[in-house]
Amino acid sequence: MLFTDPIFLFGFLPAALAGFFGAARLGQSWACAWLVIASLVFYGWFEPRFVPLLLGSLLLNHGVARLLEATRERRLQRVVLWAGIGINLAALAYCKYLAWLISLLDDWVGLGVAPPSIALPLGISFFTFTQIGYLLDVRDGEPHDRSAVRYAVFVTFFPHLIAGPILHHREIMPQFADPATYRFAPGNLALGASIFIVGLLKKTVLADPTATGVAEAFAHPEALPLFAAWNATLSYSLQLYFDFSGYSDMAIGLARMANVRFPLNFDSPYKAQSVIAYWQRWHMTLTRYLTRYLHDPLTLWAMRRRRARRLPVDRAAQVTLRGFGSMILVPVFVTIGLAGIWHGSGAQFLVFGLLHATWLTIARLWGLFRPARAEPGPFGRLWRVALTYLCVLVAAVFFRAPSVDAALAMLAGLSGLHGIGPALPLPASWLDAPAALPLPASWAEGAGALLHGIARPAEWHEGSAVMRQVLWLAALYAIVWGLPNTQQIFVRFDPALDTVRPGGPAWLRWRPTAPWALAVGALGMVALLSLGGTREFLYFQF
Fold it and tell me: What predicted TM-score, i.e. pTM, was given to this entire model?
């Protein structure tokens, strides 16, 4: 059952919301229990056999958390914690990485063992990370809600269960302890439904149509010429952008219908002016999680080791080779390398992570050594955005490719090593235009040769599939870089827990008025009419 399935839109969702507010009349625990049951039905709709795994994970982690609270002896508490984390990671590794590791070992040492066929439980990476974070916070003595039913709804709440955002107990469980959450609020229903419709539109109208031909191109990139390779890569980057942006909007909208506010998970990442800013805008809750539970502890550990050796840890120390390596390079590469592997099994995901770690390390190094400067002007910002996007695009090739070899073949195509290819349907008259310009003869000949090399001498016609694709991609980039994002449109009503950066004209900010209702309703009709053949969300595979 996808968010885009008619049975979800017209069956499950109304029943889940009606049951939640109806059960709330009997008490908060009844309403939470209803949401847990509804979420398990939602999860089991995909593959019922994985429901016991999810339930077992809930019981295990809640039990470990209670043991951590009851254990006062520090060493025993450490044993309980790492036993709980170990079981979580073992289940994740078995389901997600075992087959890949066996295949890898077979290639290296010839084990002669066929990799097992193991189905990946949906959302296992998300609910595993969510609960490990909870255990770490309990160990650290952070205030937390001990209610079993609120813990269960915090982990299983269906808007985030399959593909995030990765929630933190301190921002969600208190909301389910607030009596206001259980009172039906028409304003929140209207706001949530409007945000959901915008996300649905992104998925059905923008993301899925852009995917045409992407899978085939990445499956067989060995001979893709320049323009075909760029078309596939740009199309994929936009498909992924609108797919994940749409999902993130839909999750926030669904939660808001139930009076729950989620953290922001997507904030126009292609507008980022550095790779550091990109990671602060894309899958924001994953970045927050990795920073809190992996990067920062690694950095603090490195600093403590240096202090124990009476070595400095200030900025001056960070620009030394050893200081930079221990306090910046190692934490970044470990964290982002594991972030790559978190997304999937395969060496291509590791390379994806290591590439981003390289970009981040260079950015940190540049920040340490460059002199302080004033904010860049428009051209400076444009250059920063373009360079950041190019870095993201190169890494995205590995993120999408089925293997490292396929990714390298695609990069070769992007570099023109497979030829340029007949891609642009320019009119024949354009190809001879350089000869008529007041240019030196050698320049005119060179320009004419270039045009003949990259274009097919076809007459212009509006029905050209190639030109339609060029215009479609241009329109999508205009949306990405020229329009405010969903949260900025709905900023008047605090759609997410995070502060939303300003953007867009005032007339593009949503209000609960009749004109806006008509506009959103029209967008909803367009989205519903585009439901046929909807693809699964890309992040479901992670």
Answer: 0.90
Residue range 474-484: average pLDDT?
96
Q: How many whole angstroms separate alpha carbon 305 and alpha carbon 317?
A: 13
In a 10 Å sphere around its CB, with 0-12 CB exposed, 13-18 middle and 19+ buried, how is residue 199 labelled? buried
Establish whether 452 is a catalytic residue: no
Which residue in 343, 418, 452, 461 is the catalytic one? Answer: 343
Quick check: helix, strand or coil at residue 455?
A: strand
Distance CA 291, CA 12 (A): 36
Q: For residue range 242-290, list pLDDT tens digits in order.
A: 999 999 999 999 999 999 999 999 999 999 999 999 999 999 999 999 9
Three-class SS state of 53 = helix
Distances in whole angstroms, Cα of residue 224 to Cα of each of 37, 100, 221, 422: 49, 28, 5, 11
Query: Which of 333, 176, 328 is CA-nearest to residue 259?
Result: 176
Alpha carbon distance 20, 192 (integer Å) = 16
Residue 500's pLDDT band, with cuts at 50, 70 and 90, is: confident
Q: What are 32's two structure tokens? A: 């939470």
